[in-house]
Amino acid sequence: MYHNVFAAAVLGLAIAIGLVTGGSYLKSAAIQWKSAERTVTVKGLAEREVRATLALWPLHFSVTGDALGEVQQRVNAQADIIRAFLADAGFKPDTITLTSPEVTDRFANSFGNQRPPSRYSAEATMLVRTEAIDAVKQAMPRVGELISQGVVLSPNYNYRTEFLFTELEEIKPEMIAAATADARKAAKQFAQDSGSRVGAIRSASQGYFSISDLDSYTPDIKRVRVVTTIDYALED
């Protein structure tokens, strides 16, 4: 009987110690979990204006004729005029390409008096692909010289001049660093207002880089933009 009472007392003491110890551990774990939730999420922005590094300048033209051979000759003649104009503007031959002409039989879907004066029309594009941005900007206002020589240029929006920035990889590291610094600045302000200090980065995600024209009048100047999202730990 005495042995059973003693065993029960020992068991009860062990359970009590276990509850105290377990309770202390659970309390510590709860504090650590709560501490882990003490973070602030901020966004950092970096922007930069850069000059375009590549120009695509299409000169789209059209000719008409009653025979396919005649149409081809006119395409070649106008292409020669455009090449001479571009050479005079300082563009090298390896920056100029001519697409194959697209020929349309305009009599195919017209009858009688509705038929146009010439049966065939052909369209082709002379494309200038160059890094000489200034040369393109200086030559573009001179296209009236081509019109005066009989070249029929198309105003089609599909053949607009494009200025591209192709050196994004070279400025990425600096811009990401700038966006991260901007995010940390915001986190420090938040920590200061809440009586804390900024700790280590818990997680971070980099947004997409965007490249847009500075405005509709200066498409050769680009605005590069990136936003980063960073979670910082807050410490006492």
UniProtKB/TrEMBL annotation:
UniProt xrefs under Pfam families: SIMPL
Domain of life: Bacteria
InterPro entries: 26kDa_periplasmic_antigen, SIMPL/DUF541, UCP029033
A biological process term (GO) from this entry: DNA damage response
Designated name of the protein: SIMPL domain-containing protein
Natural source organism: Salinisphaera orenii MK-B5
Organism phylogeny: Bacteria, Pseudomonadati, Pseudomonadota, Gammaproteobacteria, Salinisphaerales
